[in-house]
Amino acid sequence: MLRLAPAASLSPVRIRPLRAWRAAAPAAGALLLAGCALPFFGAYPAPPPNAVPQVIAVTSFENRSGFAGQWELGSGMADLLVVELIKSQHFVVVERTQLDRVVDEIQRQRQKLFRPEGRVSEGRLKNARYLIRGTINDFSQTGGGTLWVALRSVFTLGRGGYRARVALALTIVDVETGEIVGSLNSTATVAAREAFGSGRYKNVSFGGDVFMKTPLGGATAEAIHDGVRGLLRKVPHVYWEPMVAAVSGRTIILNGGAGRGFQPGQLYDIRGSGRPVTDPVTGDLLSIIPGPLVGTIRVTAVRSDIAYAEAVNGSAFERGQRLLPAAHRSPP
């Protein structure tokens, strides 16, 4: 077992298998220096129809792998996970690790030394619904070769096999209740069997292009990708519902437009806020009793993002009330 060490150690670079490695050393060196990156991150499934991206936050990973080199694995691994979560288009990721700096900037803008133009509004920071915690359980490589050929005094080629392994554990925490709603393990192993290149760690940054061309970088990428796919399965989905977004005089503004299927002339019943039913022993939410029917509205105008409506009957309309198509009215 070979554990990665500080900057003086070597990092294997994954290149295409090379059978006649001695005769092809110059060509292999050229390929190595030019970079032969392989596509580690794959595509993600599209969000379900009408799904609303969940707001989540990612904490710095806890490193239990025993690795103690030049890289800060905890923050680096969290950054890679954030990038892939955003790329999946299933989540809105909010900043938490640097939140103090964000709050400091908002408070600084309130001072009289700063002009009022462009000042951000208070009370607009998004609340995370779920917190993703990560643990690095393995970050290692094994194997090696014995025959070495120097290339430009920086890179080397060797015959032998390297195997890199990265193991992650991800935990999903419900911020409202503090309950762990899911967990998963994500493990990836990448091998360079016939020929490989090695570059010194000193100038290799974690998560960079050069790092991702190494077996260890490939294992990291695959473990992160597998972890994101697991989160897509385990984080509960929230679906868009037609609701009252605002009431301005006699005009009722709805929370969607043409893209959500609103059309002029449609009739909707509006119900008041429902009443939650909780378990008297555990306090867990069991169900929500639908609110009373407060009136009926008609859509009058539709834009791309919002729609306007007027009251047909009723008047106690307010933000947050749910809409039901009048044709599918259920008993109050």
Short description:
The protein is α+β, with helices and mostly antiparallel strands and 332 residues long. The chain contains five helices and 18 strands. The strands form four sheets. Strands 1, 3, 4, 5, 6, 7, 8 and 9 form an eight-stranded mixed sheet that branches. Strands 11-12-17-16-13-18 form a six-stranded antiparallel sheet, with no helix packed on it.
Provide an overview of this structure.
By secondary structure, the protein is α+β, with helices and mostly antiparallel strands. The chain folds into 2 domains: 10-234, Rossmann fold (3-Layer(aba) Sandwich); 241-328, Thrombin, subunit H. The protein has helices at residues 25-34, 73-88, 99-109, 209-212, 215-234; strands at residues 10-14, 51-52, 54-58, 62-63, 91-94, 130-151, 155-174, 180-192, 196-200, 238-239, 244-248, 251-254, 267-271, 275-278, 285-289, 293-302, 307-313, 322-325. Strands 1, 3, 4, 5, 6, 7, 8 and 9 form an 8-stranded mixed β-sheet that branches. Strands 11-12-17-16-13-18 form a 6-stranded antiparallel β-sheet, with no helix packed on it. Helix 2 packs across helix 5 (215-234).
Q: What keywords describe this structure?
A:
332 residues; alpha+beta; Rossmann fold; Thrombin, subunit H; 2 domains; eight-stranded mixed β-sheet; 18% helix; 37% strand; elongated
